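Reopening closed ticket. The problem is back. First fold of the pair:
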Amino acid sequence: MISIVPTGIFLEIPTGFDAEIRPRSGLSTKHRVIIPNSPGTIDSDYRGEILVPLLNLGDTDFTVSSDMRIAQLVLRTSISIEWSIAEELDQKSVRGDSGFGSTGVK
């Protein structure tokens, strides 16, 4: 079951930036608690409270206390682009359309 944990933190992220909510390694390795949509993205136009979804994969209950570090936040620059629809791509690559598991295999 996923629990949404309120952090009490509100941010005003500048235009041209976004933030990522990432898991802390100790939470998953010691308690088997993960952030299921990791990393979670917070866009610059969001003005609500930062909420962190947690999923307990362990066999025992896990309780979050108010002083606990459950995630980490990384501020990143982001670029806005305009998309265009094309019938085919302009540039070819060696990889082509080979998908999952295709890199590093000879």
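Second fold of the pair, where the issue appears:
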Amino acid sequence: MTPAATLAQDRARALALTPVDSSALARLDAFVALLTDWQRRINLIANSTLSEIWTRHIADSLQLLRLAPDAKIWVDLGSGGGFPAIPIACALAGTPGAMVHLVESNGKKAAFLREAVRVTGASAVVHAERIENFGDSFTGRADAVTARALAPLPLLCEQAAPLIARGAIGLFLKGQDVEAELTEAAKYWSVQAELKPSLTSRDGCVVVVRTLTRKS
């Protein structure tokens, strides 16, 4: 199978898992093309996953929408190559009042994310700053806070706590070590969390955090 055919097959599989409308799909196609071009210059995702970008990255991101169907204001911590923030923003671009805030301190990656927002017309804004600084400067409300391949759960709790305290739901994409991370986090936090199986990985899950309180 040619690389183009492999990619087309992966795209079809991803869209079967996480369907989107035609306008969102056009934005996602533009995003994939842009990321593939920039990937030649900076490392945005693992090169080994390029042929499966639609299932490994796009659908993996879009699955979060079903866990917070009414969320309009999203904050993505450590956005990196744009996941899950850009796919979510592409899907929500036609939703009145929707906005995704991407927090990324790496200058080159932040530049890529700004270009991704421009090219796709996604409902998003890039904050080129450290997560700990963003927590102090962002005073608006958020309906959902996300992170993917960013940090162990105890640190994510620390980073997301200000937003969850103000009503956001935490949606954290995790792998097979999630139980150990939850055990470690429970030493420092009282966490009301639920594990949802990943649509795209047999070993993966989404940690859904509804309440979070630091232990004294």
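Update: turned out to be a display glitch only; the data is intact. Helices lie at 3-17, 22-38, 53-62, 85-92, 107-120, 131-137, 153-165, 178-185. The mean pLDDT is 95. Please close again.
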